[in-house]
Design brief:
Blueprint: E1 3-7, H1 13-26, H2 33-45, E2 50-56, E3 61-72, E4 77-87, H3 96-110, E5 115-117, H4 125-133
Parallel strand pairs: 4-5
Antiparallel strand pairs: 1-2, 2-3, 3-4
Helix pairs in contact: 1-2
Length: 149
C-alpha cells in the first residue's frame, strides 16, 4: 500500500472527520461526526494543534495524529504532546502508525521542540511495542494524574 503523510488543513476535514470520529469511538464515545467536525475545524482555524494526515494514493484518509504545543518550565523549552493517534482498521499493520509517529517527530523537531510526549492505556501492548520500537521510552520517574472538572 502506498501512502503519504502531510500536515492537514481545513480542506482536509472531509477526510479527517471519519478518522477522528472513529478515534473517539475507540475510546468509548458515541459517534458524532458534527461534533468531530466542529472540534477539528476550531483547532485548525485557531492554529491550536498540528494534525498530520496519512492518505493513500487516491487521497483517502488512512490515519492521523494530533499534537498540541506545550512548554517545560523546568527545562525552559518547547515540547509537544502527541495526544491523538488513530489508523483506520483497514490500514492497520501496514506502517501507517509508524509513519505518522516519524512525521510527528520530524515536524516537532522542525518547530524547535525539545521532546514529544504521549500516554497510552496500560493494557495497550501493541501501541507500547510500536512506540518502543521507534525509540520512545516509558517514563519511570513520574506518575500521571488527572482531575476531571
Amino acid at each position: 500500500m502506498s501512502f503519504s503523510v502531510r500536515p492537514a488543513t481545513r480542506s482536509d476535514l472531509d477526510a479527517l472527520v471519519p478518522l477522528f470520529d472513529g478515534y473517539r469511538q475507540f475510546y468509548g464515545q458515541p459517534s458524532d461526526p458534527a461534533r468531530a467536525h466542529e472540534f477539528l475545524a476550531a483547532r485548525l482555524a485557531r492554529h491550536e494543534s498540528l494534525i498530520l494526515l496519512a492518505c493513500d494514493e487516491h487521497g483517502e484518509g488512512l490515519g492521523f495524529t494530533q499534537l498540541y504545543p506545550l512548554f517545560s518550565s523546568v527545562r525552559t523549552v518547547r515540547t509537544w504532546l502527541l495526544n491523538d493517534l488513530f489508523v483506520n482498521a483497514s490500514a492497520r499493520r501496514r506502517g501507517v502508525a509508524a509513519a505518522l509517529l516519524r512525521a510527528a517527530a520530524d515536524q516537532a523537531r522542525a518547530l524547535g521542540a525539545a521532546s514529544l510526549s504521549l500516554s497510552t492505556a496500560l493494557d495497550n501492548a501493541p501501541a507500547q511495542a510500536l512506540y518502543e520500537s521507534l525509540g520512545w521510552q516509558r517514563d519511570s520517574q513520574f506518575c500521571e494524574y488527572g482531575l476531571t472538572l
